[in-house]
Amino acid sequence: MTPVELSRTVLRAVRRAVDAGELVAPVPEWAQVAPPGPGGRGDYATNVALQLARPAGRPPQEVARILRSHLADAEGVAGVDITGPGFLNITLDGSGAQALVAEVLRRGARYGVVDEPTGELVQLHHPREVRAAVTAHAVARILRSQGALVRTSCEDEPDPAWAAVLGVSVDAHGTPAAPAPLKVNVRPVPAVQDPTPLGRDAARWALLHPASHDRPRITSDHLLQRETNPLFRVRYAHARTRALSGNAAALGFSSAAGDVQGNATHLVDAHARALSRNAAALGLTSAPGDVQDNDATHLVDALAAYPHALATAARHRAPDRLARHLVTTADAVLVFQHTVLPLGDEKPSAAHRARLALAEAAGTVLAGGLSLLGIDAPEHL
Q1: What is the pLDDT of residues 192-214, one digit of tens each?
Q2: How many Cβ atoms sit within 10 Å of the Cβ of residue 281?
Q3: Any alpha helices (H) in the chain, and if so which ranges?
Q4: pTM for the complete prediction?
Q5: Which residues touch 27 (CB under 8 Å, ≥6 apart)?
């Protein structure tokens, strides 16, 4: 079950409770689901009970208990817990990750993108300053991905170098004569140095990755191919997913969405055996330890949270939120990548095909997110 499908499942539970007379409240148009925060459990959490408590005239915990009875027997749901003031924490059955990966691969670059216009009209107006121009350009792209109609304008004619080097464009300059119903002035903390010598990708990242209230660092560090550079980690993780596909093809197998978590024990055991053989060849012995395979779970969580990260970035006009989520996803990929391909004399199995599909889905998300920020995602670094 994908996050979108789970949201619909939650809404169906609300509708059943209302139809049965257990709740007297309007059914919302959308139920937000996201990976649980601190103190949560399961695969996803929703605050719909807190949202309905006031119109229903009942405590959130009571509303949550009513909804839990309608959610617990839904197809694809393995369990529902109530935490905190009334959050519903939902655990999916083993098909959840498989469906998510299949959904990402099916939708490609449109995963997380709203298919129909929402009718929201936004006017983004910014001063003639390079960070404001790049931020407005990125925010416009993110808002459009969420179904909004956006018009950008600048207080004065932009510097031609911003278009030539940074890919910035505006729909108009000067004071807008007929602003859209929602006018947003984009005024992040200005850049104190010219970012154009960094080139398009590094310059845009340097301006967009920090929060708007933080002053950006315009340094050559953004060009370094080191793990200390977040942009490098994101682009390298994307390149690694592409390399894994190529390496798998050379080994004679391709990806297929499958039960990643269900195959975790097999892969951990296989990799442990391979490592033990390598250690023995070096004259080393093993010591008892707790080996857990959480890498796939962390990556699945990051992919599942991507649509929420996009929606949040659009709502707050904050491209830094998208940039930070891409870093989180990339870090999960770089840990996960070592368990995708067979080791030693292992033969490719369903587990490897499922993990390759997860890696390819992660690459799709990284490429899509970078594209919305106006940054290239090369296949080789």
Answers
A1: 999 999 999 999 999 999 999 99
A2: 8
A3: 3-19, 48-56, 60-71, 95-107, 130-145, 160-166, 200-208, 230-250, 264-281, 295-315, 319-336, 350-372
A4: 0.76
A5: 11, 14, 15, 18
